[in-house]
Amino acid sequence: MKKTILITGASCGIGKATAKHFYQKGWNVMATMRKPENEKDLKDDAQLKIFALDVENTETIKDAIQKESPILEK
């Protein structure tokens, strides 16, 4: 079973670097950010999923878990 990591703040800085690092190592990466529509560097594929999540907003956390939880089962 492939390892999966969830990264918050993946739109820049340490979060983006961490997402790239684990992607290159072959992990499944769940890259979260407040505005994924603005992301130009990271691209969705079978191994990398980008989605909206604002850690200060419980509704976005609940939505992300419900929508993206099937990724964790792979």
Structure write-up:
The chain is an alpha/beta fold. The protein has one domain. It contains 2 helices and 3 strands; from the N terminus they run βαββα. The protein has helices at residues 13-24, 58-72, and strands spanning 4-7, 28-33, 48-52. β1 (4-7), α1 (13-24) and β2 form a beta-alpha-beta unit. It is globular and about 30 Å long. The mean pLDDT is 87.
Task: Record the SSE blueprint.
Layout: E1 4-7, H1 13-24, E2 28-33, E3 48-52, H2 58-72
Parallel strand pairs: 1-2, 2-3
Describe this protein with a few key phrases:
3-stranded parallel β-sheet; 3 strands; 36% helix; alpha/beta
Oligomeric form: single chain
How would you characterize the largest beta sheet? 3 strands, parallel
Give the topology string: H per helix, E per strand: EHEEH
Number of helices: 2
What ranges have pLDDT less than 50 throughout 5 or more consecutive residues? none
Going by helix content, strand content and strand pairing, the class is alpha/beta
- Total beta strands: 3
Distance between the termini: 7 Å
| Beta-strand residue percentage | 15-25%
Q: How many domain regions?
A: 1
Shape designation: globular
The average pLDDT is: 87
Whole-angstrom Rg:
11 Å
The main sheet orders its strands as 1-2-3
Describe this structure in a few short sentences.
The protein has 74 residues and is an alpha/beta fold.
